[in-house]
Amino acid sequence: MTYGVTLQGFIKKRLPDIRQEIIGDLKSKLSKVGITDDIDTRPDSIIGLLIDTFAEREAAVWELQEGVYYAMYPDSANGISLDKSVGTVGMERFTNEKAKGYAVFYGSGNISKGTLIKNKNTGDKWQTAKNGVISRDNVADVLIRPEVINNHTYTITIDDTDYSYTSTSNTKLSLILAGLVAELPQQSVSVSSNGAVVRVTAQEKLNINLSLSDRLHIEKMGTRIAVESVDYIERGAEVGELSEIVTRVDGLIQVDNLEVAIAGRKAETDSELRLRHQEKQFGNGKSILPAFDVALKSVFGVVESRTFQNNTNDVDDVGRPPHCVHCVVDGGLPEQIATTIYNTVAGGIGTYGNISRVINTSEGDQLIRFDRPTYKYIHAKAVVTKLPSVEEMFTSDGFSHIKQAILNTGNLFSIGADVVTQKFYGDIYKTQGIASVDLKFAVTDSPNDIPINFSANNITIADFEKAVFDLSRIEVM
Question: Which superkingdom heads the taxonomic lineage of this protein's source (predicted)?
Fold first, then answer.
């Protein structure tokens, strides 16, 4: 039999075969020199012990050779060997990542890298990931107060584009504010008024360049700066949570996060890396739909994505324009998502969605659009009938196990997946002592809404929606 690397792969020589080969070779050599080959080779004999000693050492070498052979392939490699194996196709293991996001620093002056802020609810400390300057050249959020002047032209310049409003001969503040709001762009920036000032917030870019004509005054101005958690934490920050200043800086008066900051993550395990390697075959090409989802999955913080397309010459039923892709992405920073979509989409193909970011490329600024899934908050109610204790005891923590089982199953539903009631029973009935379970669900648009109608029927989830479960909305009785 042929051993080693063969056309059928690696075939290892095993200990019994090695022992028999050594015995055969020993007897052959004894015969050649005229010594009888009638020797005792039993394992408990002296010669047998010598044979076993050398056979075990040779078997260990064959084990090592087999390990080296299989360390070349992602399906069987582990640890560093797996890293080097997937590295041949340009992949790297995801390492520990800190939580990341953007915070708006209000005031004036320089903000140094490492400036500390804090999550007001969790106490987690965050720090700026780079230096920043709060100035009119880098405006993320600004409050503008106009003076009330008759027959006066007010001009707000955003990224070298002028937006002007001329007051009437008998004007008042509310008219000036309404006029400025109407003139300002409604896509590249968010514009609103509270009756005293106009608020302008950068949308498509992290920060904008701003200049004002006379009679317009800045009440408050902030600049977006990238921030990250000081420690490796697997939680992010909701809007408005990064609002406490730890490091006192001259000119800094306030800090706030206008967008959700994404959670950190642990280093990728071997099994997770192997799975991503298998999926990468769809990402080797560009512009095909699976390639988008594979590429977006590599973006830090992205939980999942789903990509649609309109390859016709007409606007489709959803409102997507002709020849475009529509990526729905859960998690991740918008700037990184937009860059990934730009690097994946084919030339001449547009993007669609309500979220937009401007990407600076060698071909100039490119506007990339995508969407977030609309969360549908699922409420669950389970009424448990227990078996008689003499038949099977219901454990003291049984209700907790059932709640966790419902949550674990619910977290498996992806974007656009309907909530199918039957999928929950398998994990629920792993809890001992259950005779039957009456399981019903309800859905709300807000996590704090009180559900009205619970039903055992499946819940239909639209293509751009995602069912979201939480222990606080699961009741077991």
Answer: Bacteria
Q: Tokens in use for 204? A: 């498509």
Query: Are the C-beta atoms of 133 and 279 separated by less than 8 Å?
Result: no
In the predicted structure, residue 156 carries a pLDDT above the cut 90: yes
Domain interval for residue 128 = 100-256
Answer yes or no: do 313 and 447 share one domain. Answer: no
Angle, to 10 degrees, between the axis of helix 289-297 and the axis of helix 270-279?
Answer: 160
Total structural domains within the chain = 4
Question: Cα separation of 80 and 91, whole Å?
Answer: 13
* DSSP-assigned states of every residue in 5-64: EETTEEEPPPHHHHHHHHHHHHHHHHHHTT--------TTSHHHHHHHHHHHHHHHHHHH
Examine residue 145 and state whether it is found in any structural domain, yes or no: yes
Domain match, 461 and 379 both: yes
Specify the pLDDT at position 282.
Answer: 55
Structure tokens at 248: 């006192």
Q: Nearest to residue 22, comparing CAs of 34, 13, 33?
A: 13
Specify the range with the lowest mean pLDDT, choosing from 153-157, 360-364, 434-438. 360-364
Beta strand pairing status for 474-476 and 374-386?
A: parallel
One-letter amino acid at 208 equals: I
Q: Are 116 and 240 in the same domain?
A: yes
What is the rounded CA–CA span in Å between residue 294 and residue 24?
Answer: 56
| Distances from the Cα of 260 to the Cα of 227, 233, 242, 330, angstroms | 12, 15, 10, 12
Amino acid letter, residue 305: S
pLDDT top residue among 284 and 78: 78
Is 85 within a domain? no
Write the pLDDT tens digit of every residue in 313-354.
999 998 999 999 999 999 888 999 999 999 999 888 999 999
Read off the pLDDT of each residue in 273-281 and give the average, rounded to a whole number: 80
